[in-house]
Amino acid sequence: MKLTLHIWRQKDANDKGILETHIADDVSEDMSFLEMLDVLNEDLILQDKEPVTFDHDCREGICGTCSLTINGRPHGHEKATTTCQLHMRKFTDGEEIFIEPFRAKAFPVIKDLVVDRSPFERIMQAGGFISIHTGAAQDANALPISKINAELAMDAAACIGCGACVAACPNGAAMLFVSAKVSQFALLPQGQPERQKRALAMVNKMDAEGFGACTNHYECEASCPKEVSVRFIAKLNREFLGASLFEH
Amino acid sequence: MGLFSYLKSTILSKIVMAGTGVILVLFVFGHMVGNLQILIGREVFNTYAHFLQSLGELLWLVRIFLFICLILHIITAIRLYFLNKSTKPAKYQVKAYVRSTLSSRTMIYGGIAIFLFLVYHLLHFTAGVADSSIYGHVERYGPLGIFERQDAYYMVIAGFRSVPVSLIYIVGVIFLAMHLNHSVQSMFQTLSIAGPRLTPVIVRFSRIFAFIVATGYILMPLTIMLGIVGGGL
What we know:
The structure holds two protein chains of two kinds. Chain A is of the alpha+beta class. Helices cover 38% and strands 11% of the residues of chain A. In chain A, helix 7 crosses helix 9 (231-246). Chain A is elongated, with a radius of gyration of 20 Å.
């Protein structure tokens, strides 16, 4: 396959940045998107040019490290797929591909396609945990949880914290991420003691980090590689309102 | 805690948008159903208008309540618009929208258009400033015409006889319907009435509701402008 790649190049957060065009001549359709960039980078290194910087880690679609906005869609056009699991056979020979970073004020560009997603870590530090000892594996098995709640909690816990929701949202809102994290605890008995405190702390931290407000475009759900549902945002609204009224 | 401290919170702001939205949507629907009585005739419509006027203080309480909801809705919308604009300082060179709609992306512009239309509408029919020739007419009714009441029927018919005025109303209503198309389902989601089976029904309801409101409101200026309703005034 031969592809024309328009890749965002930016030296650091203060640099203006520009789209740079590269031709990838010999792309195998069995490559993943990141492998295609690896090959491009090897060529760039051989030509004594600066390779393209991008984030990646497990390359198995579970760690949430890879990012990239491909042709205007975080993680590309394929449904429920991270960039590392997106394969070149999903593109056509001769296609032009625009590769940009995840864009949001809260996610400043560090270099090229790498953005600083540490606001997510700080939101987790504000309340995305359980302070009590919940026991070992057998204690979890001994605790009866209704099937519907167990499954909903798992659906929420599927969030890998990649930030695609923020990148896709026209408002730069992090509601899908925060709602998944608040919901996974709110649905399980272990999460009950700190339920209201957690909802307040995580949402307030989200606001303080400069994320936007949800206007229910649902672009986040469409881009989420783990298909986290916007129904959790509806749940977050309820959790937060309840906590605001009753927790002081 | 100041009155407007909720504006600092994204979620509380959303909830205020949705809560005031519920009130405004109910008003829009009630206002439409009430005014559609003009299609029946002068007697029915003037009786209805007279009934509203006779409410006195109650009518003013409702008006003040609606006004407060509207102001909160607008202030919160402006605050959220600037907040949400600030979160994306660098724009995508290429952006593909998947789930958002034209109406969801134009809420603020539609809102501004509806507000301007609302100001005109109030000056036109409520205050009678925009066209004073249609305002203040009196209808005599009852046996031998011994009672008097405001001829609201004449006001509306004469008002909508003007083609430019009717066109302004039709355009205003189209903006309102586009706004409702997104906002009715959005309101349910924000107020946490959502679920895998419920949400698709609500989204469909939202579309149908917007369509009904558009049809109901356009029917009045359209039929009057064309002389189908109120032909002889």
